[in-house]
Design a protein that fits this description.
heterodimer, A: about 120 residues, seven-stranded mixed β-sheet, four-stranded antiparallel β-sheet, 11 strands, about 50% strand, B: about 110 residues, globular
Chain lengths: ~120, ~110
Amino acid sequence: EVQLVESGGGLVQPGGSLRLSCAASGFTFSSYSMNWVRQAPGKGLEWVSQISSSSSTIYDADSVKGRFTISRDNAKNSLYLQMNSLRDEDTAVYYCARDREQMAYWGQGTLVTVSS
Amino acid sequence: QSVLTQPPSVSAAPGQKVTISCSGSRSNIGNNYVSWYQQLPGTAPKLLIYENNKRPSGIPDRFSGSKSGTSATLGITGLQTGDEADYYCGTWDSSLSAYVFGTGTKVTVL
């Protein structure tokens, strides 16, 4: 069974940093592209970033370019999102999701709250 | 500001059919596969349709997808109270080099 479990969310002040993790199991992690998708309270889905299976290709949404960095460790079956210079508008539930052309599997999400 | 436009809401009585449209452009829907996602209240999204019209294992055939030009449509027949959820289309945008989601549609069963 495919499982994606996010962690690392919490309360952070504007301008601060946070690192999210996503632990994957039930499939060959190193064979799939992975994504981060977020959802602000009461709002729709917003794609954040995508990394290819070998980390050779990375795409980022304009809203996070230069502030967020996606990475992965295939030996640990883990996906990461380093978030720096956080803003109020980054407050959201962050989901990790598998695959490139469709988000076939999703984690349960981790809440990031940016507030002073 | 999403590049994929969906109606904010649709509704119908139990057993009836609803359709949800997703309008885009050549750089996204026009040249890439469309997926549809269902998000039940308080839960993570779930893949309903991929590659325009394919259903993952376990998704009932009451759900169907189609694409024509720069638009896509999700159909739900035999509407059930358990289908009350938010639905999103999604696809890759070749010009933006980004995955884009639709604005989302809330389905209400009357």
